[in-house]
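A quick aside before the break. I want you to see a complete sequence-to-structure record at least once, exactly as it would be stored in a machine-readable document. Don't worry about memorizing anything.
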Amino acid sequence: MFSLNTQHIIYHLSTYIIRRLLLPGLILILIFIPATAQEIPDTTDQSLTVITDTIISINDSLVADTAAGSKKKTQLEAEIQYSSDDSMSMSISGQRVYLYKNAVVNYQDIGLKADYVEFNMLDHTVSANGVPDSSGALVGKPVFSQGSEEFDSDTMKYNFDSRKGIIKYIVTKQGDGYLHSERTKRLSDGEIHVAKGKYTTCDAPHPHFYIRLTKAIVIPEKKIVSGPAYMVLEDIPLPLALPFGFFPNTSTRSSGLIIPVYGEEQTRGFFLRDGGWYFVLGEHIDLTILGSLYSRGTWGIKGNSTYRKRYKFKGDFNIDYVSNKVKDDPKFTPTKDFKILWSHSQDAKANPNQKFTASVNLSSTSYDRRQSYNVNDVLTNTKSSRISYYRQWGNQFNLTANLQESQNSKSRMINLGLPNLVFNMNRIYPFRGKDSDGKKWLDKVQVSYNSKLENRIFTPDSTLFTKQTLKDMKNGFSHSIPISMQGIKLLKFINITPTLAYNGVLYSDYTTRRNTPDSSIYLNGSSDTDIDTVRKFSYAHSLSTALSVSVSPKLYGMYMSKKPDSRVIAVRHVMTPNASFSFMPDMSSIMPDYYRSITYPHSITKPSITEEYSIYENNIYGTPTVNGRSGSVGLSLNNTLEMKVRAKTDSTTEEKKVSLLDNFNFGTSYNPFAKSFHWSPVNFTGATKLFNKQMDVRFGATFDPYALDSTGRKIDRYLIRENHKLFRTTTAYIDFGFNLKSPSRGKSEKEPEIEPDPYMDETNPTLDLLNESTAYASGAYVDFDIPWSLNVDYGWRFSKQSLNTVYTHTVRLSGDVSITPKWKVGITSGYDFVSKQVTLTNISVHRDLHCWEMRFNVVPFGERRSYSFTINAKSSILRDVKYNKAKSWHDNF
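That is the input. The structure line, written in tokens, reads:
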């Protein structure tokens, strides 16, 4: 019995000594970087201890140096943590530790995962490799990571003393590419030397294409430099070889050369296009300068700058100028084409009291026709730009400064406002105390202040930058102090508002009239007079009082279905008639007189005529005073129509509202104090949504109650007296628009919004649009999860202001269909029913080739008839690895 107990005690004591004392002393330094596989040791070694399911963390270890017979202590910089799912074994005589099955080792920023890891404490090396499964396939291969760097391999071995390692069959991600290597050496400075390597942007285990590197040096986070290299596509070597290669491998931006695109056009000759330099100007801004040169005289320059400051603002600025000419073709009309794009947005959290935004799209008409490769630029007749600054002081004062621009490509007219300033003070109640209930009549008196400064230019784009344009600029300053009483209500729908206001204007010029020698010729109410513009600052002001009365009741009509099985439960019609009256008495007796008179001598057919005019009639705000009494009566009727229906299924009693007419409105006004044309035209507008709100319908018209004379001029006679018609239709329109698409295949309807990186070239639409090889597919996202989509827009417009009738009647459609998950075909086209011609048509075909893509675009007819075929690697690193074939639409002119 004693003997048995003694053996039992000895056994537990030895186990305790091995586990608690010897084990920490045997494990020295476990810093795990690539190493080659070692043979799994024979577990029959008598000195071997097995510990299962363990996680160990050590700081210091003391190991007996058996060769020197001395003790050596190694201080670690941090804890080493390791674990394994199966077991951990130790060979005391061989001074080795073995980890089996999903071994994980972490030390500082270094991590290693493998199904087998071995530590040799004699020569300070670590080895790792996968193990064969039941079928003989190698599983659990080593995965090494250090910082942001990570790679897979078959085997790896690393020496802690020399800090060098040998790796076999490595696959590592370098930037946007992947590096495959049969044999790799890692040096102490972090460089990686590669033999028989492959560089590719394809993420497949067996890449579809790669650049074969006979030997290369990888400097992590910087670059890859290789010796002789050649392209391999689907394991077929191509006759595309380079004596050396350079691949950027950095997450930071760096300045560099942009290789131009070369080619030939029949009209403008051989070209080098969009070549230049990319500059990194700092952490928050960059600059790209590109130039183009054609052999027959055309040249151009482009600039692009992208900037961003996190939590503050971001923006993108682009400018393009092209001198378009063919020096040896006298029939070619030279043009100076330009385009300016600028977008700027401020982060909502940057400053709650001020905001600066910009959206600029300015171009010459000739640029849209001759230089733009964006189909929307060709089809869009009007464009607008706006730069705005807003500043608020508390809740009382605010300032808005705007630069505005709009242009019409058909009329070639540009309308500019630069700058326009608006300063307002929100209304205050000067007689209302802190404890006032607001019911006394003095409590309802409110005062506010409004002011604005404007500068307007309206000119053809060909004369935009001339001195005469600045000379013809219209400008002025206007301000007002309205004092009113908060609306007095009668019978809940009658509002009475008395108003007293001071108005003032400041102009830099005014006009006067004088007769000419031919002023005796007076026809159709106008005469030959000279208008002199006096360039002199002048201020005009007025004091006006007005009384406004408005009536706006609501009337309801209801139809209830009498059939119990009917899906329609009820139909409700809501009418909102509105009548308003405003009156301003004649204040000219106490106000300055800004009106003058001119007398036209009599002619053979007409007697002498004296007319009154205002010296400010041509200024932007007109005359602040009214010559006599003024007032108007406004009449309008708004209608909405909606229906309540039952659900289609019998299993539910759910009811829902359906809008039949969102609005159906009429409006006009009557001026009893006008000398002529008392009634204004009747405006009619309407809108609704059909087919479960997938189709928008908008319609409207304008009706004039006055007749025309034989020359087409409107006269002050009612139409009903001339030809027994109540109105004549001057304008009318109807628009339909709907967007249909098939349900997504296994994909959420709402895609997460990913903010693009403004420093990546592929997110810069301007550079893409200016690259003819990506003419109609620049930066486009192709969604293969939607089998088809269709957009249709139909528009009909009628205008007859005088005797001539103008019609516009067009239909435009666009859509795409995914023939297979990898093939998508799209079309954009339309038809003009007036000219009986098909509008600009573009057909596109896209093929997803995994790491490559193919695009084919064709405009089959018209003046922009062209085609382009491109097959290219998707990655931006190898964006120049592509094949282009195109016919430019420039050759059609």
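Two observations worth writing down. Residues 94 and 420 are 86 Å apart (CA to CA). Residues 2-26 form the longest helix (25 residues). We'll return to this after the break.
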